[in-house]
Design goal:
The C terminus is likely disordered. It contains ten helices and 28 strands. The N and C termini lie far apart (159 Å). By secondary structure, the chain is of the alpha+beta class.
């Protein structure tokens, strides 16, 4: 038996995972370092484990028959009494073999209180008195200082801020990289401001007895800031500069009425078309009629000037050219429409004449040619609204009546339709802005509003409301900033919808002063030729 005991001692000494008197194992060191752990529980478990390991090494046969006793205090135990061993059926699991590694600890899970551990981890300062030493005031203050230094006000601040220009490179330096982002101004001033358009009219004038007729053209604004308005069989002149109103003429027959008015480019003569088919020419300075030009068999509802040539469109569908310098004024006839001509506009350069009629046709004419250059039939209603683009002489805008409701854009040089937009309302008149790339349209059934469009995208910039009936006519002031609209509600409303830029306004005023002097000489020659 002595030699067996000797072999057992040698084998126990040669095992690497047996308890020795050397440094503590890793799980023991971690248990002592972790704050808030129940050190007494770990120590009791360690002692019980060491005793079981020692017993197994000294007498393996007795260790196999001995049940494992937990030395963790329980609620039923009282101090001073020995703990009872558990029943064999409910005994905890005891390692049947000696652990292979000394740094691995398999705890007794029946002796672990998970609820208590969770409470202690979440409430360290209150659950464990030792935690107060760890979370001392000095340490809390230290953590607060570290948080302020690391975060501070950086959460509400920008990481990058471009306030100064980058430094210039050395002489001869070449940068081949593309510029993706650049900043020349501050973010606030770099945004493009939206132009303000007043929604209310600047002035409202009464226009009693103005005719509610879609096919007539009853207002026009001269370059001398005089607005001609036709009311029944009378023509009135309103001076927009001082507000004076005077009656220019009245037809002798009370049953007759005025169908159209149009100023010559110089602004000294006014052409008037009557319901009897005559075209009268009036001198506004002396308030007298210069001549009466007949030839049409029905009323004249459209007039347009091209230098000294006056074109008139009648209800029969014919267009006459009048040379106001010679006694035999009738110099040409255009027969391209089968119904009443209600729209007539010469282009600013005098190369094209656009005519629209109740037959839903739009014709493009050239001077001294009696056949139409182009005939457009895309409109599904009468074509009255016509306007030539001021910065593209070959671009024409046209609007259709109630059954059409479209604004269409044409290139008269090629005869192509550039684009079209459905306005959802009757188009009665069109005007281009001289200052902005915008278009103003007047509408009748059923909205009765003015719409400012951005060209060429045709997005709505503003809608001007106020008229209670369809807006039949529009005219623009000489400076291009104000538009007057005439509606069937017997009112004239002035809208300042095309305000000019101050810099360009000063340059334009200088040009107008020079142009007035030239225009005065030209109007004097015109007066002598007519007389």
């Amino acid at each position: 038996m002595s030699h067996l005991n000797f072999d057992t001692e040698i084998s126990s000494l040669m095992k690497l995972d047996a308890p020795t008197s050397g440094p503590a194992m890793r799980w023991q060191r971690k248990a002592s370092e972790v704050p808030g752990c129940n050190t007494s529980m770990n120590r009791s478990l360690n002692k019980s484990l060491n005793k079981s390991l020692n017993a197994s090494t000294s007498s393996p046969m007795k260790a196999s028959n001995r049940s494992f006793h937990s030395k963790t205090p329980s609620k039923n135990k009282t101090p001073g009494k020995s703990s009872r061993s558990r029943t064999p059926g409910k005994s905890s699991k005891t390692p049947s073999k000696t652990p292979t590694r000394g740094d691995r600890f398999i705890p007794n899970r029946s002796a672990t209180n998970y609820e208590l551990s969770s409470f202690m981890l979440s409430n360290t300062a209150t659950a464990d008195p030792d935690a107060e030493l760890v979370q001392s005031p000095s340490k809390l203050e230290y953590q607060k200082l570290m948080s302020d230094n690391l975060n501070g006000n950086q959460l509400s601040s920008r990481i990058l801020s471009y306030k100064n220009k980058p430094p210039t490179g050395p002489e001869g330096f070449q940068n081949n990289l593309k510029v993706l982002y650049s900043q020349n101004k501050t973010p606030g001033s770099s945004r493009k401001t939206i132009r303000h358009i007043p929604q209310a009219p600047e002035r409202i004038l009464d226009a009693p007895e103005i005719l509610d007729d879609y096919y007539l053209n009853l207002i026009d604004w001269s370059c001398h800031n005089h607005l001609a308005v036709s009311l029944a069989n009378n023509v009135y002149l309103w001076n927009a500069g001082n507000g004076e109103i005077k009656q220019l003429m009245q037809l002798e027959n009370p049953e007759d009425y005025i169908g159209s008015v149009s100023w010559i480019k110089e602004g000294n003569y006014l052409a008037i078309g009557t319901s009897s088919g005559d075209v009268q020419l009036w001198d506004v300075e002396s308030s007298r009629r210069l001549r009466n030009m007949s030839g049409h068999a029905a009323r004249v509802g459209a007039l347009s000037w091209n230098a000294y040539i006056l074109s008139s469109g009648s209800r029969t569908g014919t267009i006459h050219h009048h040379d106001v310098r010679v006694p035999d004024h009738h110099v040409g006839t255009l027969a391209g429409h089968t119904q009443e001509v209600c729209g007539l506009k010469w282009s600013p350069d005098g190369r094209y004449l656009a005519s629209g009629a109740n037959d839903n046709l739009l014709n493009i004419w050239q001077p001294n040619v009696n056949t139409a250059l182009h005939t457009f039939s895309q409109h599904q209603a009468a074509v009255k609204a016509l306007a030539w683009c001021p910065w593209q002489s070959s671009v024409l805008a046209s609007g259709g009546g109630t059954a059409d409701r479209h604004i269409r854009f044409w290139n008269v040089s090629s005869g192509a339709c550039l684009s079209s937009v459905d306005t959802k309302s009757q188009v009665c008149a069109l005007l281009w802005s001289k200052e902005h790339r915008e278009l103003l349209s007047a509408h009748g059934y059923a909205q009765n509003q003015l719409i400012v469009w951005k060209y060429p995208t045709m997005t709505r910039i503003a809608e001007l409301l106020g008229h209670t009936s369809r807006i039949l006519h529009m005219a623009m002031s000489p400076d291009g900033s104000t538009v007057v609209s005439a509606a069937a509600d017997e009112t004239l409303r002035l809208w300042k919808c095309f305000a000019r830029d101050p810099v360009s306004k000063k340059a334009a005023e200088k040009g107008v002063l020079g142009g007035d002097r030239k225009g005065g000489a030209g109007s004097l020659k015109m007066r002598q030729s007519i007389r």
